[in-house]
Predict the structure.
Amino acid sequence: MKKKDISKVRKMATSILSCVLFSLLPLFTSCSDFLDEYSQDMSRVQTVTDLDELLTGDCLLPLGYVSTANSTYSLYNHNFDIVHFMSDELEENLDTYYPPYDSRYCTPDYYPYFTWQQSCFLNEEGKNSNESSEASYWLMGYEKIGKCNMILEAANEVDPEDEDDEALLNQVVGECHFLRANYYFMLVNLYAKPYAPATAATTPGIPIKTSAEIQDIEFTRNSLSEVYDLIVSDLNQAEQRLANAEKPKNKYRAGILAVYIFRSRIAAFMQNWSEAADYARKALAMNNSLLDLRNWSEGYPISAQSPEVIYSNGSSCFGNTIYMYPNRANRYGGEYTYAPTYTISDHLLSLYDNNDGRIGAYITNQDDISNGCWSYKKINNSTDNFNTYNTASDVFCLRTAEAYLLLAEAEAQQGNDGEACRQLNLLRAARLKNHADISLSGAELITFIREERERELCLEGHRWFDLRRYQVDAKYPYSTTIEHTFTFIKTVDYADVRDHTNYYRLEPNDDAYTLDIPKQVRDHQVSIGSNPRPFRNPFKVVAADDSDNDY
């Protein structure tokens, strides 16, 4: 395995960073070639079909896959997988003296996020080597936003030839608004404080750009309120355009059902509980399908074939990022073990009981032949799937299960405890063997709903954002302490072994719940400013011989 192939997105970051920020870094002169080339593509748009092809080719995230060619193991299209590494769903695998096979290559890429470092452009040695990686997430979001802007403007210049053309134009414009809302939601929840209704108008968000025009100006951040207003406006447009559209032909095209679920999620983040309930109810009225996971025995529950999956934007190879070789029958590579680099955390595992079919369906300890570590199983990460595109996203996936949980949360927040419990019981009846209905109220019910979200939506990109929004919940605020580790590896007799492990702690309501604006953006657009993040030293260091020193 070679680190140089760990992510296609990251390989591209340095060469095209200045271009794809779409004028957020207008001082970069190298932008012109890329923008000219893209403008030429837009100038060839003559029909609605041309716009549709540009949308599917340029506005969607790429599919992830694992390539094994010429003895090289490569992961492509991680997309926004850092959200998995900052929450309390994963922990480093510390079970053996010899680290898992891919630890030397996997853990450094996620070190600044997994340990909540002040500067995510610095590696574990304090060297400035992660600038392009740090900027790549901002890059992806604004690249896709910029392309949506271009298509939306071009749509005004295209005349439909007939009713079918008119319907397709509505589909394209509706999807573009839906996608732009998704990307702004992702960026504002990475790079701005969580949305609190009382302070959103004065809290810095992220820069808004809805024009395709190249602007040589100093950008500043719009307020959180303005960003969320844009997201809601885009979803209003998407709802109007897609309300009467035909059902999408595949899970990568958004329809009105996807709009309803995402609109409910946005309303929940804005603590508009009545609206969150209304849209979740609309979604479930269209599709309330749930897989029966009570006796799940094989396969991967989240895929384009699942009746629960309503929409997926791209996909990633997250499962293989943390577990290179699941399902292998024999050891390979001497002392190295086929075990996950990151395992399911004790916290997450403790939330399931023995009757829960999501153990085995969502997480498993049966793939690892060496020590039975608990690992991720939601999306196909088996060796049989190598050299094949994954079919569902672990970040941009909308499922009916989320609609049940959003409706339950919204009803509970409004004091409708009985209806909230009813929705939870409908979901859990498809998940737990020997299911018994729950009957809870008040704070106890809210806590249960939040835990049920963890059990159901684990490692789909929800948990980190949920932890952020719970901090500013007006009625039931919550924040917790999370501990992560980072292990330094040394080579002894040609074998990788553990040297020592640093322990880090994220405190309740810590400023590190918000990423700083990437260094490359701050350096070239000083007006955008930065987000405060505390410097973080380990609170404990444990040597490989188990001696430890508390800091």
User: Anything to note?
Assistant: The mean pLDDT is 87. The longest helix spans residues 163-191.
